[in-house]
């Protein structure tokens, strides 16, 4: 049994449920939204990365990289518990476990995974770097280059999404998938997290904002957004 089950910081009430260790960042929201969308029973435990609790030994045991989110599924492969780190891997695992949010058709499945990894490799890291230099690093870095670089890259990526979403309700057309769940919280964070609506000219990306609002307004998204909040 994982030692985190004995943690005084994250007490487990029901070991039969999926245990979610997270915070309401864009990456954290991906998994809580997916759990809500899939209707899976889970317990949520707030991991406050602002006070470095993610470096506690019991958390490192289930996530060697000390990042959120992480889950423990007591009913993993073969009926044995499994701990999973990395939000993209968690989304794939949950989709495969339930048979939902990931198309069965091999071509559509492959395409969905491509857009999921587009978020993991590009949208998340680049939007995150933009937010760091635009909002948080002003006192440490007063050179304009980082903000200009990541502003331009964030806008480029928004343009990629704008083109993809033109004529499509969701990233995969009419089907809502883990690719949408992975990506829309990062688009929202440009507003609620970084206060960068004007800096990035988000109003220019009408299809992106239309899609974001459609994803964010879902009941499961509204519930998932509130899980492990900062307050």
UniProtKB/TrEMBL annotation:
Nucleotide-binding listed as a keyword: no
Keyword Transferase: yes
Limits of the GST C-terminal domain: 105-231
Coiled coil: none
Every GST N-terminal domain range: 15-102
Entry keywords, A to Z: Transferase
InterPro entries assigned: Glutathione-S-Trfase_C-like (IPR010987), Glutathione-S-Trfase_C_sf (IPR036282), Glutathione_S-Trfase (IPR040079), Glutathione_S-Trfase_N (IPR004045), GST_C (IPR004046), Thioredoxin-like_sf (IPR036249)
GO molecular function, one term: transferase activity
Any Pfam family hit: GST_C
Xref: PANTHER family: GLUTATHIONE S-TRANSFERASE GSTA, GLUTATHIONE S-TRANSFERASE-RELATED
Protein's UniProt name: Glutathione S-transferase
Source species of the chain: Pseudobacteriovorax antillogorgiicola
């Amino acid at each position: 049994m994982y030692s985190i089950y004995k943690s005084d910081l994250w007490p487990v009430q029901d070991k039969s449920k999926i245990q979610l260790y997270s915070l309401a960042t864009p990456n954290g929201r991906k998994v809580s939204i997916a759990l809500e969308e899939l209707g899976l029973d889970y317990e949520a435990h707030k991991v406050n990365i602002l006070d470095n609790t993610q470096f506690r030994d019991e958390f490192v045991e289930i996530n060697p990289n000390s990042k959120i989110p992480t889950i423990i599924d007591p009913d993993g492969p073969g009926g044995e518990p499994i701990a999973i780190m990395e939000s993209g891997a968690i989304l794939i695992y949950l989709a495969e476990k339930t048979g939902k949010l990931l198309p069965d058709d091999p071509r559509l499945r492959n395409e969905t995974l491509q857009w999921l990894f587009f978020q993991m490799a590009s949208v998340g890291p680049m939007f995150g770097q933009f937010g760091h230099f635009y909002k948080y690093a002003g006192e440490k870095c007063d050179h304009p280059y980082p903000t200009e670089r990541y502003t331009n890259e964030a806008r480029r990526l928004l343009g990629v999404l704008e083109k993809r979403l033109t004529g499509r309700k969701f990233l995969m057309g009419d089907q809502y998938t883990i690719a949408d769940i992975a990506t829309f919280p990062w688009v929202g964070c440009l507003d609620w997290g970084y206060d960068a609506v004007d800096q990035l000219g988000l109003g220019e990306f009408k299809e992106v904002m239309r899609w974001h609002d459609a994803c964010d307004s879902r009941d499961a998204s509204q519930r998932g957004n509130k899980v492990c909040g900062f307050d």
